[in-house]
Write a structure and sequence with these properties.
This protein is of the alpha+beta class. α4 crosses α5.
């Protein structure tokens, strides 16, 4: 019986490519910033795992606990340094994407090659042995896996992100102006990239109604109409005057937009490990409701996650 030919370099390339895509999607979904070299390093660590197939003496690597530990190592290498909380978030996304995306790739590759086997080890071993020209993985597995993810995974992706992010990234915040403290339920929004154009200070978007009672009556009307003269006139002589900020922005259907904001004395984020404060932030006023059920009334800039630590 002829011995099967296994191409180590090509097998590792497949695993490297898959891990790179999974880690990239994990970074995008979690909102964590990671450089391409770090993505490559994590993928390289993941690709070494293929040796568990080729070397029977380390077949213990297929033990479930070892698999979990190794996948955690991949996440840690790619996203280091991470707090325990952020590590669990990154690992959760990595597993969720791996099940949906990685499984689709291997599934479609198996369909195209007729791969069979009893048990995880034999199926994956047979898959590696069948990848001499990489056609079945890169021509069938990757494209069909990506299509499957985009078509069938879109609903799951959106719900996973909205559910997990709103559970893990929701914080009570306190905004201080002189002797005034305003308590707000906030949500970290990875889509909020607003910054002051001059100082690059991040902007926290807050429903204007929460500050309306502390401001002159004509102020909110002036904000809605972008009446800059009235804005400055009605704040003249008050402590709000020196805090006023104008933040330009662009969004879908609205170019050259302008948001009115204030520079607070401090913003305090209430985390499970305690309160974390920062002065480098601007409070931007939003005239509508951010959440229909009012479960959150402020959108925090993702860079503030570093302060949450």
């Amino acid at each position: 019986m002829a011995q099967p030919i296994i191409y180590l370099d090509k097998s590792m390339l497949i695993n490297f490519s898959m891990d790179f895509i999974l880690l990239y999607l994990t970074a995008r979904l979690s909102g964590y910033r990671v450089s391409t070299p770090r993505l490559a390093l994590g993928s390289l660590v993941g690709s070494v795992y293929v040796l568990a197939i080729l070397l029977p003496e380390i077949a213990f690597m297929y033990n479930m606990l070892v698999k979990i530990a190794y996948s955690c190592l991949i996440v840690a290498v790619c996203f280091y340094p991470l707090t325990p909380k952020k590590f669990l978030i990154a690992a959760g996304y990595f597993y969720a994407i791996s099940f949906g995306f990685g499984g689709a790739i291997y599934g479609f590759s198996s369909l195209s090659t007729g791969i069979e086997g009893s048990g995880n080890f034999e199926v994956l071993s047979n898959l590696v042995q069948s990848t001499g020209n990489l056609v079945d993985i890169f021509v069938w597995g990757f494209p069909l896996g990506i299509i499957f993810w985009l078509v069938f995974g879109r609903w799951g992706y959106s719900n996973l992100k909205s559910t997990l992010v709103q559970t893990v990234y929701r914080f009570a915040i306190s905004v201080y102006f002189n002797d005034l403290e305003v308590k707000i339920d906030g949500l970290v929004d990875t889509g909020n990239q607003l910054r002051d154009p001059l100082t690059k200070v991040p902007v926290v978007v807050v429903e204007a109604v929460l500050l309306a009672e502390y401001l002159p009556k004509e102020f909110i009307t002036a904000v809605a109409e972008l009446d800059f003269v009235t804005l400055e006139t009605c704040l003249h002589g008050t402590h709000w005057e020196g805090r006023l900020r104008f933040i330009p922005f662009s969004s879908i259907g609205k170019h050259n937009g302008m948001m009115i904001g204030f520079l607070p004395d401090k913003l305090e984020i209430n985390t499970p490990s305690g309160k974390v404060g920062t002065q480098r932030v601007i409070i931007g006023l939003y005239l509508k409701e951010l959440s229909p059920d009012r479960s959150y009334r402020a959108l925090l800039h993702p860079d503030l996650l570093a302060a949450v630590g």
